[in-house]
Every structure is written in structure tokens, then in C-alpha cells.
Amino acid sequence: MREPGNQENRKFKPKPIENCYAKSYEINGEKKFVDIFTHSAITGEVAKKLKDFFTEELKDKILNDDIDLISSLHDIGKANPYFQNKIESGKKTDIERPHNEITESTLKNSFPKIAKILGKHHGSSPINIESPEADVYGGKEWNEIRLNLLEKLQEKFNKNLSDIDNDIKINILAGLVTVSDWIASGIEFEYIKEYEKHIDDLVNGAGFIKPIIKKDLTFKDIFEFEPNEIQKNIIDKINDFSECIIEAPMGIGKTEAALYLAYKSLEQNKANGIYFALPTQLTSEKIFERFEFFLNKILAQEYKFKPKILHSNSWLKETYISEEGEPGHSWFDYRKRGLLAPFAVGTIDQALMSVLNVKHNFVRSFGLLGKVVIIDEVHSYDIYTGTLVKELVKNLKEMGSKIIILSATLREKEKLQLIIDAKMDRLPSAYPLITYAEKENIDFIEIKNNEHKEITINFTNTEDQAIDICLEKLEQGNQILWIENSVEEAQSIYKKINSRINKQTMECGLLHSRFTKIDREAKEQEWLKYFDKKSGELGYRKNKSRILIGTQVLEQSLDIDADFLITKIAPTDMLLQRIGRVRRHMQNDKFRPEKSANEVLIITPERNKILKTPEILGNTGKVYSKYIICRTLEVWEKLQKIKLPNDIRSLIEETYKEKGELDMMERFKKELKEKSEKLRRFALINSSEGLKSQYDNEKKVLTRFSEFDNADVLLIKTIFFNKEEVKITFLNGETITLTKNKDIKNKKEIAIKILQNMLSVSEYISPKPEKSDYIKKDILKDYIFLDEDGIRIAIVDETGELKSVSGDKISESYNLIYNKNIGYYAQKARDYGK
Length: 834
Hints:
The protein is of the alpha/beta class.
């Protein structure tokens, strides 16, 4: 047991409950206090209000009747001499123990599950818990004060505390308690005496407003067109579901089918919101436009929460969840905060954080509670992320959330693993196919498809030949999509083609993840309009021919319609996704060039050459399994044409079916098996059940496996600073001023602008963390969340080269460059200037 503390704390004797403080405010230079009982009562009332947000089924199954009382107890651990001394004097001592630890200790013997819930409310569970009467907690007298607070709060809420009845509730209720505390902590001091009048405004201001759903809307009422055969089957045959998997061709309207299923759940009060989870930020931002249209159709006029703010930086401006969600703190990020909104679109990563052993994973679980969670492009994840997706689906079903999984190219083995309740070895081979669970039953909807599109498959072994064909197609007036398997290869192709096109009649664009957010959004807005379903009607296909070059982001969830596709070899399921972007919308057919046809060009080495010299695959062999690439070629190299959607199922199953191998293929297969097992084990180790202690730094916990950690980099044009302020000019010429004034009115807007000028790259090609304490720890930390590594910040000079703010060498091995057209790239120092 530790020593009980310094003399000052020993003299800090127990005092009346009303003088035990939980919060302090500074009003006109004078320090004001909120006692523990009052703050606890506010938190309990917020929790009671939040509970009303959920369905009756969830209230019965998950949300305990005593949640108001349970939430109110979260801060009784602040009744200890060390915290009380600190809050009054401002002096912290090394002996002070976390108050959530003291709360858990106080309740652990009588209410072990509730104690565990309350112990988590600062992000993770305490590791070492001592006796509630330990000297480091203040001894017996201070424990009596805490027990008196328990009695007083039981009287306040007119309840006697009893422990919860199952473990499923622990994470959910821990999330509810934590969010209730955040919201309660945001109340203005002058409103505290009459707090009961302000509970509704507090909860609504945090974004928790119960949706008002229009009733009896048809599919056409919402989307303004009649459902197709697949959509009609889903509407007519699925009355309710816990899980639904929709396998259907690219461009067939799976998104609208999923949203209509979600609408029916909302209309019947069987769900309280929607989270639409996509593979990338780009795809989530494009889907949001359709999602916003959907919300505006289904939400009643009197519902006062604007759908448009639920997936944008304005979400950060217009909602408030206390200090934890303010600039400089980890939850000031719409990717996290959006999870708490009634309706949100985002990447799968934030949902996966609920099953990873990271701080506040239970807040994310609470954010997904009772929602319809739509997981799109589920086939696109590797073994590591796929394992986490399976854990997520399992948890969502236990929580009472509904799951809709969308894919055009899902393998049977993967599907069996995603249907948690399935007790079967085989599934129907029909395609399209809808698989759904209703109560304990698994059922299927097989849909006959009489329409098909024939695609001509061409191959080339050389990049130069592909470029020549590309230029010829551009001369004919085609809109071309070129997909590479890595950012570096996409950048290289862009440079080669852009240097050879006729700028009068042709345009070349590049899209990938290594642009700042502000530049990437501008590129998306400009380029994706040239390839959408209305591009012909709006005249974009008449004035110029265009080529858009990019990475895998262009194959996922985007409504792209190209006349011609050039792609590097990729696994069958990814190739099919890419081919699904060719001549996607009939309404554009009359605007296509006369010689345009249903055809694609695949760039690949010959299979026998890969078997002799695997290195010729280049980055493709690093991104994808060499075994799967060779199996793909084994299936595709004998094809001249394919029919979509008819051939989708057979092409996928033929590529992935189990078979014996010899020689190099046997070696490739063994490598894949070993890596798959490694990734699966790694995913389970990182899961919330796999590690005994949680990661404090979320960036160290992977939702996508990579050999290298990622780093966030802030790119600027100039920076000037003194003791009072920092002036930053961004690459677009906009200047902001950062000060230490915490009450600055436009602080959120400034923080958002900083985030928009950042990008994420592999750590090995990022600048070193800025060593200047002034930049790392002082003013910037009030605007953006900095982990223990600090911030990576670089000045981009007029040539595009990145320079260190402090004058230190920016990278040991690379010259780092940022170009608005090409993005962020690294050149080895010895190659620079060649």
C-alpha cells in the first residue's frame, strides 16, 4: 500500500457533502464550485433523458431501469482528500489516485457489475484497485462520505441500487454513463441551480434528438422512382430482420434497398437511427449526398435537427458534448462524434473501434446501440479487418442493433462467417441473392435475372502499350478510368499521361488518399461530376475527353460511369468491382463516342513469368496475395468476354475454391495461409477481449493492417509565432491566428481549418515530429488533439518541397514533396533531382 500523502492532504479533513466539489468554473475572475451531489444529479437526469431516445425493446433488454441512479454515482470517488485539495487549491499531488478508481472501489463489493461500469467512465478500467477505506482513498471517514452520497442519490431518484443482471450491459451502460457525464459537464454555471429546466436543451444541444419519422412512405415516395426487381423482392418479402445480406450486381441499387429496409425499421420503432459504414472517407462523403436526400424525405418537418450537419464539419460547430468534444480533445472529430448522432455516414473504422481495446470503445458501442448499421463493400477488407468486422457483427446482434451487409462480390465462406446464427454448411448459389435472419430463422430470396451485359476482356503486359491505347481512346472522345494498386504507381501514370495529352481537348485527373482534405474535396467535386449518371445530360461529355487515374478508392461505392477502363491486375472480386464502373448508366449511352464499346484493358505480367520472377508484380504483389493474383489469372487469362451479372458468382468461386498446388504455387499458397493466420490472431489479440489493458493512443490500434504506422501531417505555407499567438498561412493563402484565449469565439472554425489542411501518410515517409515545445505543447494543443508523439508539421516551399519549421532535417531518407495536382510523395534523397 502506498504512503497516505503529504501533510497538507492529511489535514484536509472530511467535510459536509454539500462542500465536496466535483467541478469548478471561473466567472469574471472568481472561482465557483459545483458540489458532487448536484453534478451527479444533473448527470442522472441527462441519462434518464437519453434513455428515452431508444426503442421500448432496448429499454427492456439493455437499458437498466436504474440508469439515472447508476449514472449519478460516477463521480462519488471525487470525495477524497487529494481531489478536494486539488480542486480548491489548484495543487496536484503525486499521491492522488483516479477518482473513477475510487468510485469502483467504493461499490465493488456490493455491486460489482455497476462498479465496473462506473470505473470505465474516463475511457478505460482501473488496473489496481485497493480497499475503499485505504489511506490513498482518504481512509474510513472519506469512504463514509462516499456511502452517504450513495444514500442521498438513492433518495433523490427514489430507488434502491441493485446490480445489473448480465455482462452484455456493461459496455453499453458504461458508454451511456460517460456520454451523460460529458453532456452534464457542459451546463453553464448560471443554470445549475435550476438545472431540471435545462436538461432537454443540454441533451438536444449534444445532438440527441429523437427522430420523427413520416409514416407509410413507399419506395417511390422516398427515392422518386419505382423499385427494380431486386428492390421489390426485398420490400415485399422482408418484414423484419436482425441481419440482412444483399448480394447483387454493381449499380443495381443496393444502397436504396438497404435504406428502405432501414426506413421500415425506423417507422415501426424497431430502430432509433442509422450508421452507414463504408470502406473509405471518399466513398462515405459521396454516399452522404444520397443519404441526405433520403433523410429529407423520411424525416417529418417538425424534426428540428438538420440532416445536413450530421456528416460535415458543421456537426462539430453545432453540437456540444462538454470539454471532451471541444477543440484540442480527442472527440473533436466528426468521425468519432458522428457515431453518436442519430444518423451518420462514415468509415467502418470508427465502428470497428467499438471492438478494439482502445479508450472509450464502449462509447462507440453506445453510439451504435439500436441503430441500423449498414456495412457496404464488405468484400473489400483483408483477413485482419474482416476478422474485426465479424466481431463487430456479433456484438451488434447481441446489442439489439440491426445489420445490413452489402456486396456485389461476396464469397460463400465469408458469408457463412457473417451469418452469426447460421447452422448450415452450404448456402444457395443463386445470384442475385438476399440472405436474412428474422428472429431465429435464416431465409433466402433468390432472384432470377434475365438481363446481362457482355464485357470484352483485353490484356497487355506493358504499361507503355496501355498508355498508347489510352491516348488513342482519348482521341476518340472517351471518358476513361485508370485504376492502379498503389498511390505511387497512380502518381507515376498521371505524370506520364498528363505530359502527353492535348490540353486543348483532353484533361487528366488524379485521385487518391494523399491529398490534404481540402484539396481532396475540391478534386472530388470537380472530377466525379464528369463520370456520374447525369454527366451526359449536363454536357460534360461533349466538351473534352478525360481520364481519371486513381487507386482502389475508385472501385468502392462510387457511382462512376466510364466509357473505358484500364486497370492493373487485382483479385477477381476487385476486378469485378472495377469493371462495374464501365458503361454503368444507359442514360449516358447516347453521349458516348461512336467507337465506344463494352471493354476493359487489364495490365498484368503473364502468369508463368510471375511464377518464375514474383518481383515483377511490383507493388501489386505487396498489396495483394501473389497466390490470389495467380489464381485470378488462371481463371481470367482464358476469357475473352464475361457476362455481368451472370458470371459473377462462378468467377469468384472458381478463383477462391480450395485446390492442391505444386512448386511455386504451393509456396505462394503457404505464404498466404501463414499471413492469414497471423492477421487473424493479431486481430483477435487487438480486440476488446484480447488484451488485458487498453491502448491509450488510438493511432497504435489498427483497424486496417499495415506494415507501417500512419502519421497525420499538417502542411502549411508559413508560420510566425511569439509568446501570445501563432499565425499560420495555409497552402491556399488563407491565414489563421491561434491564441491562448480559451474563450475565443471562432475557436471551432479555426480547429476545423487546421484539420482540413492535414493528411495521413505512412510514418516512414512523414516528417519527424516537431520538437519545438512551443509548437508541440503550447498553443496548438488547444485546437487539435495531440498524442504523445506531438504533431508532424511541415512548410511547403514554392517548389513543393517540405521544410521543417524548426530548421531540423525533415527526414533522414527522403525528400518529401507536396504538389496540388499529384499529392504527397517521397523521393529517396539520392534520387532527388534526377
